[in-house]
Amino acid sequence: MHRKRIIVAAVLLPLLYVYIMFLPAVFFLLLMIGVTILAMSEFYAMYQVTGIFRYACTLVGVFVVIAAYAASPSLPDVLIFSFMIILIVRLLCKKDPTSTAKDLAAPVIGLFYIPGLLLFQVFLRDSGPEWIILLYASVWVADSMAYYIGKGFGKRKLYKAMSPNKTVAGAFGSLIGGTGAVILLRGIFVPSLPLSYAIWLGAGIGIVTIIGDLVESMFKRDAGVKDSGVIIPGHGGILDKVDGSLFAGPFMYWSLSFPGVLT
Q1: Number of domains the chain is built from
Q2: Is this model's pTM higher than 0.70 or not?
Q3: pLDDT tens digits along 113-122
Q4: Is 171 within a domain?
Q5: pLDDT tens, residue by residue, 20-68
Q6: 3-state helix/strand/coil string of the chain
Q7: Residue 101 is part of which domain span?
């Protein structure tokens, strides 16, 4: 299994690098649409959201990502409109009012959890593809360091109720990995980023990567599944691979929005 993970990563990572760095921004939008569809499908499968409800919710999720790409000033309106669509679908497709709130919980959470967080990566891409590479590279290094340091030195559990395999040592590994990755890669991709801010940004990414992983573990344990899907051999589902970046994307976007960061 470990060998399969390495082979898949060795094939996919260079392809993704070329795709993100050298193709126009609209291709990144297409990638985000694909991730949105697959990740929402996995999330809804975990919570047994089926039929027209599942397809309608996924469709409005795609609509949210497209609205972010269009840099629409009415994006908050799009989110509210999407929520209204979900309510209307529940109203018309299930005439029994019993369990309305329960029926709506997973679809609404899925809408904000996946496209609602992914849209920040669309915003980051507007500043240049190098920021997307920095984001995913730092998340990947943080995640890898968490795994290997946790496996080698982890004894004390970090949050056993949510993820029994996460350790305090692994969390420190994520912090070190995120910080080191941003420091090393800033010179290649974003030399305008001050070193002091790169340290802060990398440490934050290391922390929120662990949080994003724990959030997805919370959902999976609630739904009673080990992996969100099996679409990537040896790696689980799409949601398993982007859980850390779902939180790291907004964190990086908000961090870079502070005045004077890139000047």
Answers
A1: 1
A2: yes
A3: 999 999 999 9
A4: yes
A5: 999 999 999 999 999 999 999 999 999 999 888 899 999 999 999 999 9
A6: CHHHHHHHHHHHHHHHHHHHHHCCHHHHHHHHHHHHHHHHHHHHHHCCCCHHHHHHHHHHHHHHHHHHHCCCCCHHHHHHHHHHHHHHHHHHHCCCCCCHHHHHHHHHHHHHHCHHHHHHHHHHHHCCHHHHHHHHHHHHHHHHHHHHHHHHHCCCEEECCCEEEEEHHHHHHHHHHHHHHHHHHHHHHCCCCCHHHHHHHHHHHHHHHHHHHHHHHHHHHHHCCCCCCCCECCCECHHHHHHHHHHHHHHHHHHHCCCCCCC
A7: 2-256
